Amino acid sequence: MAPIDASRLRADLLRPAGPYAALDVVSVTGSTNADLRMAVTEGAEDRTVLIAEEQTAGSGRRGRVWNSPPGAGIYCSVLLRPRDVSFARLGSLSVVAGLAVTDVASALGVDAVLKWPNDVLAGPERGKCAGILSEAASSDEIAVVLGIGLNVRPSPVPVSPGPGGLPATSLREQGARTTDRTQIAALLLAALADREDSWRQARGDLAAAGLLQDYRDRCATLGQEVKAILADGGTLFGVAVDVDDAGQLILDTGGRRRTLYAGDVVHLRSPQQAS
């Protein structure tokens, strides 16, 4: 399997021809997100990209490990410095990234949907194909590192199911038109830049950016009866009825509406299935 071609990506994506300031591909690292969080303190520029062929300590939400074997996926982090976006709006970047991943899946002929807050599910069995981790970085100005792990080929090692027993899947298993990781990385970064530019111009307001309705249309969580696992370890049951312009999930918990900024969500069944 061919390695990701950094020179080809730079030619297409770096300024002035493209939207990014810097782009590196490394053979192996612990975590691309951790590397870029460190780079923030060293003055790395807005829209700096780091891609790894392999991660030995790739991370997901709530301290989980993201399986990152060599050559099987795209493990990518982007440093963003959206100066005109308030800190409270940064959480909606997961929505932006999720839309970009589904844009790529669609371009490759793969059926994919979004699971709030940060998963991309693909195929008729809705296996987990991608995960997103957005982390604010310590800096004198607003900075965030946005990580995307995208499964291109099946993992050569067993992968534990995610919350709710979600199996892992990959673009190849779902019939993608290509598994050329350089081409897919270029598509992903271009889609992300396009979506993120709209988000930034709207100061992080998903509705004003024209992104909220796209997310609602692609979000498989909406209409589902769910169990929400909260940050404090508590649980909440309800029907997911909407996502607001900050990317927060709105649950109907028996006539009372609750807004979730963060947490894990397990799909149980839809109200239609329950009837």
TrEMBL record:
Keywords: ATP-binding, Biotin, Ligase, Nucleotide-binding. It holds the Pfam family BPL_C. The keyword Thylakoid does not apply. Coiled coil: none annotated. One of its GO terms (cellular component) is cytoplasm. PROSITE patterns: BPL_LPL_CATALYTIC. CDD domains: BPL. Its EC number is 6.3.4.15. InterPro entries: aa-tRNA-synth_II/BPL/LPL, Biotin_CoA_COase_ligase, BPL_C, BPL_LPL_catalytic, Transcriptional_repressor_C. Residues 12-200 form the BPL/LPL catalytic domain. It is an enzyme of class 6 (ligase). Transmembrane segments: none annotated. GO terms for molecular function: ATP binding; biotin--[biotin carboxyl-carrier protein] ligase activity. This is biotin--[biotin carboxyl-carrier protein] ligase. It comes from Amycolatopsis marina.
